[in-house]
Amino acid sequence: AQKVTQAQTEISVVEKEDVTLDCVYETRDTTYYLFWYKQPPSGELVFLIRRNSFDEQNEISGRYSWNFQKSTSSFNFTITASQVVDSAVYFCALIRMDSNYQLIWGAGTKLIIKP
Amino acid sequence: DGGITQSPKYLFRKEGQNVTLSCEQNLNHDAMYWYRQDPGQGLRLIYYSQIVNDFQKGDIAEGYSVSREKKESFPLTVTSAQKNPTAFYLCASSPPGGARHGSNQPQHFGDGTRLSIL
User: Fold this and answer.
1) Which chain A residues touch B if contact means CB-CB below 8 Å?
2) What average pLDDT does chain A have?
3) How do A88-96 and A33-39 pair as beta strands?
């Protein structure tokens, strides 16, 4: 079965703290793609990153970083020095390679950054 | 600016009524998607279309219908057969990539339509 699990339903931290959002996936595919999206209170989903299974390098983009570990089937997302504007729901997603590349979505993690 | 436009932002449906949600994109993307989002849950795929005049059912297509007569447009009709239509509906599109009948490229989303029952 293919599945994405975001076990943290809600996380609340104080501004400037670092926070890590967990994403664990299950797939039988040897080639696959993982995504992170941000959904602010306004509702639209904003694409953050795409990672393919052959690229295990961690990625950093400003205050955002992603740790991809195939050995543990995890693709975790860390925000350093969090800001109030980071408050949103964050979704992790996996492409279903056997079903026209449709996305399997995690349930999302609601991140609350308190001033 | 290129993007995806969904309208209306809020929609109310009466019992037994069909309603249509609009989705227009000017990104020149081939693929378009409709998702339903319920509180505390991830997105669930309703329908998707990889090319004009062709579309496939997603995981929860019952009670919904779509058409894809133009590349830019992918309207979703919520029919009276959908007994629990109250949800947030998101439309997305993506450029081609990776497969003949699918795309591994990121999907771009509209602002969504919130549908409620009167």
Assistant:
1) 4, 9, 33, 35, 37, 42-47, 50, 52, 91, 93, 95, 99-103, 105-108
2) 92
3) antiparallel
